[in-house]
Amino acid sequence: MSATMLLNNALIFGAALLLVIVASLIVSRQSGRLLRVALRFVRAPDHEALAANLASRVSRAIVVVATVAAIALICAGVSVTMYEIDCGPQLWYWAEASLLRDPMAVVWLVLKLLGVVAGAFVVYRFLRLVAHYLIAGLRRNAAFVHHDAQLATLLARLLVTLRWGIALAAANVCFALAPPPEPVVRALETVTIVALGVLIARTMIVIAHLAVDVVFQFARGREGHRTLRYVGRLEHLAGITKRTLDYFFFVGAATWIFDQINPGGRLSEFGLIGIRIIALVYAGRVLIEVFELFVRELLLADPEKRSEAENQQRLTLVPVASSILRYAIYFCMTVMALQELGVDTSPILAGAGLLGLAVGLGAQAFVGDVVSGFFILFEGLFLVGDRVTVGDVVGNVEEIGVRVLKIRDEAGVLHCIPNGEVRSIANHARLYVNALVEFRLPYAVDVNGVIAGLKAHLTEFRPRCPDILDDPEFVVQDLQDTGVLVRCVARVKPGRDDATCELLRAELLTALVAAGVAPQASHVVVLHNGPAPR
């Protein structure tokens, strides 16, 4: 790197930078004067304040453009110096070929460039007014009343996209009118593509988020509609929908940028694969929710038209059916994603089949539990909430899984029993159960008279206990040494036998005491092995 080249590049780019600063100052000051004259000419109301406001905005825009141009000049100067390019001879050759050969053509070119800049400014102002008008119209719409913050963000993103898009378009038109060296043109094209891709993606994300919120808000307000009420029940998918749209637009923008810079390249192909996988994952998630909603509507709709037992059976089948559908969709989604990545899934499917066969042979107990679980579910032997006896366990069924049955006993202990070990089942929750209470009567009393009195007492008590389904019956069960064993049998609602037995014991004791019947005393003889008393 020679000192002459370094000095030439420093002088050239320094002079260009100084020219940009001076030109921006001149244009900024003269624009204010021109605006005041123009507004005075058209007799605008309060033209001084309006001119000052417009001049301030124009000055800010000129400062932004000058700053970008200065940064571009500095980067260009550093780049050409690093590549050891002496700009002095090339600049002199360009001046001889254009400026010195036809000065009038240069003047005409400068006028055209100024016209492009002025046209870009006018177009931006017009589109800015259109954007404000559209956002104001949306704010007046009833569907967007609660979305002022999102509309403000959308307006800001639109203005930024319009500002930079028009500026980059004007720069490309200027470069087309006055072609600079090829590396500069390529650099501007790259900057334009990247900037437009990012700006459009950010704007589309705001639009998509707003659309998602408006759609779910509209569906929430139409709960009575036959179709829209289902959309409202999927409102919890709004978050994942927004995140998916974020990924979709950003990956799509990156794919478009790579394809424009290097058409048909590997990065653009990877981007397309990524977009398809994102769409596949989101579609699978939505399908899972839709199928679960369909299963609930199919099995649990109109519960008042079915019996309580049938409702419990369907409530038990819902999580099982949802799990089967969920895992099936996950499997299909995984296979399709692997196919998108170019993986041959035939060996995987064949291997999965062999693995399933091996697991089935090696895990016969597991398979037996699963098969027994399906029989329990579909035969309806017992349902969630039923009080059952399985082996030595007595309690309420909390969950009927594909492999395990969960029962919580009276002590609150949760028992997990494999379905394959369920050999015999006693269900206390089908139609009715009997509440049994046994007591003894002395031989000295009139047994039939006492039983008749007890029947009358329980008949009066029955309206206060809705769990009793029929009048209790009394049966002489046995004649024992200590008295007559009598059993009271009352048909009660499923699962209410223990509570009803407590009430019956209290009422029977009250009736016996009122009738003057004392419980038969037990005589106990204790034999003492010791010396005889004196």
Automatic annotation (TrEMBL):
<dbReference type="GO" id="GO:0008381">
    <property type="term" value="F:mechanosensitive monoatomic ion channel activity"/>
</dbReference>
<feature type="transmembrane region" description="Helical">
    <location>
        <begin position="6"/>
        <end position="27"/>
    </location>
</feature>
<feature type="transmembrane region" description="Helical">
    <location>
        <begin position="315"/>
        <end position="336"/>
    </location>
</feature>
<keyword id="KW-0472">Membrane</keyword>
<feature type="transmembrane region" description="Helical">
    <location>
        <begin position="154"/>
        <end position="178"/>
    </location>
</feature>
<feature type="domain" description="Mechanosensitive ion channel MscS">
    <location>
        <begin position="367"/>
        <end position="429"/>
    </location>
</feature>
<keyword id="KW-1003">Cell membrane</keyword>
<dbReference type="InterPro" id="IPR045276">
    <property type="entry name" value="YbiO_bact"/>
</dbReference>
<protein>
    <submittedName>
        <fullName>Mechanosensitive ion channel family protein</fullName>
    </submittedName>
</protein>
<feature type="transmembrane region" description="Helical">
    <location>
        <begin position="105"/>
        <end position="127"/>
    </location>
</feature>
<keyword id="KW-1133">Transmembrane helix</keyword>
<feature type="transmembrane region" description="Helical">
    <location>
        <begin position="270"/>
        <end position="295"/>
    </location>
</feature>
<dbReference type="GO" id="GO:0005886">
    <property type="term" value="C:plasma membrane"/>
</dbReference>
<dbReference type="Pfam" id="PF21088">
    <property type="entry name" value="MS_channel_1st"/>
</dbReference>
<dbReference type="Pfam" id="PF00924">
    <property type="entry name" value="MS_channel_2nd"/>
</dbReference>
<feature type="transmembrane region" description="Helical">
    <location>
        <begin position="348"/>
        <end position="378"/>
    </location>
</feature>
<feature type="transmembrane region" description="Helical">
    <location>
        <begin position="61"/>
        <end position="85"/>
    </location>
</feature>
<comment type="similarity">
    <text>Belongs to the MscS (TC 1.A.23) family.</text>
</comment>
<feature type="transmembrane region" description="Helical">
    <location>
        <begin position="190"/>
        <end position="216"/>
    </location>
</feature>
<feature type="domain" description="Mechanosensitive ion channel transmembrane helices 2/3">
    <location>
        <begin position="324"/>
        <end position="364"/>
    </location>
</feature>
<dbReference type="InterPro" id="IPR010920">
    <property type="entry name" value="LSM_dom_sf"/>
</dbReference>
<feature type="transmembrane region" description="Helical">
    <location>
        <begin position="237"/>
        <end position="258"/>
    </location>
</feature>
<dbReference type="InterPro" id="IPR023408">
    <property type="entry name" value="MscS_beta-dom_sf"/>
</dbReference>
<dbReference type="InterPro" id="IPR011014">
    <property type="entry name" value="MscS_channel_TM-2"/>
</dbReference>
<dbReference type="InterPro" id="IPR049142">
    <property type="entry name" value="MS_channel_1st"/>
</dbReference>
<keyword id="KW-0812">Transmembrane</keyword>
<dbReference type="InterPro" id="IPR006685">
    <property type="entry name" value="MscS_channel_2nd"/>
</dbReference>
